[in-house]
Please model this.
Amino acid sequence: MTLDVILFAIIASATGLSALSVVFSRNVVRSAVWLLFTLVGVSLLYFLLGAEFVGATQLIVYVGGTMVLVVFGVMLTAQQQFLRIRIRPEEWAMGGVLAACLFALLVTISLRIGEGKAAPPTEPMPGAGQLGVGFLTTYLLPFEIISVHLLVVLIGAAYLARAKRRPKEAGND
Amino acid sequence: MTDLFSFLPAPLDLIAACLVVGVVVVSFIAVMASVFVWLERKVSGRIQDRLGPTRLGLFGLPQMVADAIKLLTKEDTAPAVADRFLFKLAPYLAFCASFVAFVSLPFGNGIVGYNLNVAAFFILAVLSSEVFGVVLAGYASGSKWSLFGGIREAAQVVSYEVPRSMCVLIPVIVAGTLNLNTIGRQQTGFFWEWHLFHDPFTFVAFFIFFIVATASCKRAPFDLAEAESELVAGFHTEYSGLRWSIFFMAEYASMFAVSGAAAILFLGGWHTGLLPFEPSERLRWAGHVLDVIVFIAKGWALVFVMMWMRWSLPRLRIDQVMMTCLKYFLPISCVLLVGVCLWELFVPRVVGDAWRYLSAFGCMAFVLGVIVRLLVSPLPGPRGELPGAWAGVATPLMKAK
Model:
């Protein structure tokens, strides 16, 4: 048992536990907090694997994302303090079956990955520089498509969120 | 760092290094925070023409210990309606974020907890998660004022994160790396080698970065999350004692972290700017000590400017805060980003060098001019004497008489 294995065991079990807590927590904001811990755990796994850039990206993207989730959670609880979610049995059954199928699929695939492969490369992982060059040369088209897509989403969100002035109120002004 | 513990067998040296880094960083943050609290009171006093703490010892310095004892022994209360788990978790979340940023912040050439290749990006990512603790504190307190403070902070930080990241990108484009240690090494030499004077865009970017970083540390004039005049005390209304002080430790730690990042990215990192070589390579351990002292001094100077701003400027309204970010800082930082790319691509070396020397010596002349004018020019009050709380302090002019 090397230090890597021990650290992986600790981080992976913490990530798994907080992922379970996301599902089993009844309070919206608490599940968002558990989701934060899950995502931080995943980024720690990236750091452990030496993929520093991906780990930092995971942090900066998902921490901001979960914070927005918390804000939404707070907005949902505006009616009463600390809203609790009630889940019906059929929802449990449906979600449980789906989750079990997905889990089985992932386990079979991940057990197959290690078969017949050589030892992992010992040279250092490519950094942000090579990633950036890749984005702007080989993968320029997908990169541009995704950026235009995001821009469209942004404009759409801004349009929907803008306060609309009703004709009546405009007349009263 | 693991080199120091090479006498230990394989996994133990790493564990020992981690422990040492952790203990050093935590104690550095704790001591620094208590010194900053004292300094904040002193600075605010001087700016408002008062004296600040004076009762205890020299300059009221032991007041730091008294403050710490007061905070440690205060009753730790929580509102009955609070969400207990999140209420207790929130301060630690905020502190963790600031603490982790220090792990990849180099204090000198190679004096860094872990020399991360993407350190600049990592510090940004980690510091922006400090807001999570604030939002949770606001939510979990079960109080309207706290909730308002938390939500305001969320809105503010989510928008200020964008220009902040862009301003970090500008020196990164000049340096060509995200590794803060390498960026520091590139600025070895005299002060005109600093990235601040590299081109007009980095020069403006430094000031934008500093303002935006002040906002992201929720310092005045951007401290909407704790606006006392409107929200009692904002997100930490319901906190007391140790938990409250952990929030403030986190705040002062992230102030120092962004100041340190600004010093490395723009102000030559741990270099004095007066020596043409890397001190740690020529002077051995003395050079390392000099590096750390210079770096901490630069960080503290920037933190002092933050305090100065806090006690000189009135607080903005929330719509003004958002407008400053989205209508001014965001377009300006986009223009700077494009500008610095064009400068790197098209501007010939002669023009770059001319700008470098011109701006560096211009800035030095300006700073010296301000200092001389402060000491020489007639101020309200008798000639050569400083007014208010400064009365009786010897100025060079009085000594000349």
Summary: The radius of gyration of chain A is 22 Å.
